[in-house]
Task: structure prediction
Amino acid sequence: MLIAKHMPKGPKGQKRPADVIGNAVHVMRMATGEIKESAKTDDGKNQAAVQLGSKGGKARAKKLGVRRRKEIAKQAATARWKSR
Result:
């Protein structure tokens, strides 16, 4: 018998059924709308920021100049391709 600490959890810590069939039924019920999939943000994130995706990305891009954005992009590209 499985103890609660060994039960699989979702990305936000939700309890999920341990067996494959139970998990399949759970996913089917979420897909058909029989049960609501909870997307709580109890991890300290700003609810508005979660809904919008990222709160400050557009503001930062607006603040940075074209040259600085190019520098950042070049650094990111070299870091990505460095190991290849």
Q: What stands out?
A: Helices lie at 20-32, 47-52, 57-63, 66-81.
